[in-house]
Amino acid sequence: MSLIGSRIAELGLVLPPPVTPPGGVRLPFREVHVVGTVAYVAGHGPQSEQGPLAGPFGRVGAEVTLDEAIRAARLTGLSILAGLTRTLGDLDRIAAWGRVFGMVAVAPGFDRMPEVINGFSDLILDVFGPEVGAHARSAVGQAALPFGTPVEIEAQVHLHT
Asked: What order do you get walking across the sheet with 38-44 strand by strand?
């Protein structure tokens, strides 16, 4: 087992299968697109261990609590790790996390988006450590996100040559 695979198992984490989109929805793009030594990770949302998008659904500060949103960001991280595993075959191929763009569906007045996306960042740092897992990041509020999810995250990771 790879070093990162072993770390995931040690932390008791479960990576979900490919996302099950809502009925009739077509997703005509790659979840991870590798160009040279960069892997571009498309926007992912929180998934259950079985594959469907995970609730609660809605806007943070209204239908979704701060704690639920932090958990959704963590589940989104697991979804991204699963997508990277399917594409790369081995997460040990990741040399560095480059950029992370976190989006949070927010109710008017909610401004704690960085705290929500910490759920993702903390997961990545726990799994990869401070050298490989450190990343640049933005966390922004949106009026709505696809399928009512409270969090969507995209990323760029650098691969070993």
From this structure: 32-35, 38-44, 151-159, 94-105, 136-142
Quote the pLDDT of residue 29: 95
* pLDDT confidence of residue 24: 87
Do the beta carbons of residue 101 and residue 147 sit within 8 Å?
A: no
Q: Could you tell me the two tokens for 31? A: 């979840």
Residue (of 30, 5, 33) closest to 18 by Cα position: 30
pLDDT given for residue 21 in this prediction: 82
Cα 35–chain centre separation = 20
- Residue 11 CA, chain-centre distance (Å), reads 17
Under-70 pLDDT residues of the chain: none
Pick the closest to residue 157 from 123, 138, 134 (CA basis).
134
Half-sphere exposure in the Cβ direction for 10 (13 Å, CA): 10
